[in-house]
């Protein structure tokens, strides 16, 4: 951040500094000794801080979009794993041969391409999950359910934190907009007073 004087010294849980509300502009600019350049530089400083908050907000919104895509994917994968676990347990307890021992499913190859697969319910001991970066790992169904449940919980918490940060940044941006307007109006009044005195 550009200058400590535009921050209260407090931060939120993720370290984003809280914008100071300028109550008295005279605490930042001495009206008796300031020049037009001093006011212009201070307005630039306020603008720069506001742009930093906006940049952070945009990054948080991108993060939120990614999380909004991930969460449904994790839920779908978790639901499938739970379904497979249920099929596995029902096959172990029934002892009778089921008429349909295979499950036909559609799975996504990429954003627009799906394919069909047939899963043999007698052989549901493990699942293979994409972890990203072209990495696929095989997990026993129970471990996959545990891992996906934890990942869903962490991703949900990240989403809550991101939403909280966006609200916090919006509040700081509003504070900086008000500060900028107040300094600009103060400067207009200062120039009028100078003209009247001259």
TrEMBL record:
Q: What is one GO biological process annotated to this record?
A: protein folding
Task: Give the highest taxon in the source lineage.
Answer: Eukaryota
One GO CC term on file: cytoplasm
Report keywords, A-Z. Chaperone
Q: Is Transferase given among the entry's keywords? A: no
Which InterPro entries does the record associate with it?
Answer: PFD3 (IPR016655), Prefoldin (IPR009053), Prefoldin_subunit_alpha (IPR004127)
Single GO molecular-function term? tubulin binding
Pfam families given in the database record: Prefoldin (PF02996)
* Subunit composition and interactions: Heterohexamer of two PFD-alpha type and four PFD-beta type subunits.
The text of the family note is: Belongs to the prefoldin subunit alpha family.
What this chain does, per the entry, is described as: Binds specifically to cytosolic chaperonin (c-CPN) and transfers target proteins to it. Binds to nascent polypeptide chain and promotes folding in an environment in which there are many competing pathways for nonnative proteins.
Protein name, as recorded: Prefoldin subunit 3
């Amino acid at each position: 951040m550009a200058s400590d004087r535009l921050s209260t010294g407090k931060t939120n849980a993720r370290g984003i500094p809280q914008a100071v509300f300028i109550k008295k502009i005279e605490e930042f600019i001495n009206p008796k000794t300031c020049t037009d350049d001093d006011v212009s530089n201070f307005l630039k400083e306020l603008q720069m801080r506001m742009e930093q908050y906006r940049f952070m907000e945009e990054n948080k919104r991108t993060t939120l979009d990614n999380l909004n895509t991930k969460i449904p994917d994790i839920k779908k994968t978790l639901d499938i794993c739970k379904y497979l676990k249920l099929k596995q347990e029902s096959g172990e307890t029934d002892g009778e041969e089921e008429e349909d021992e295979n499950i036909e499913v559609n799975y996504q190859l990429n954003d627009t391409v799906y394919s069909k697969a047939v899963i043999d319910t007698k052989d549901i001991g493990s699942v293979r999950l994409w972890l990203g970066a072209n990495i696929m790992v095989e997990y026993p169904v129970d471990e996959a359910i545990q891992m996906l449940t934890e990942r869903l919980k962490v991703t949900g918490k990240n989403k809550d934190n991101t939403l909280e940060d966006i609200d916090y940044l919006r509040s700081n941006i509003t504070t900086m907009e008000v500060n900028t307007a107040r300094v600009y109006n103060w400067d207009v009044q200062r120039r009028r007073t100078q003209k009247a005195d001259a």
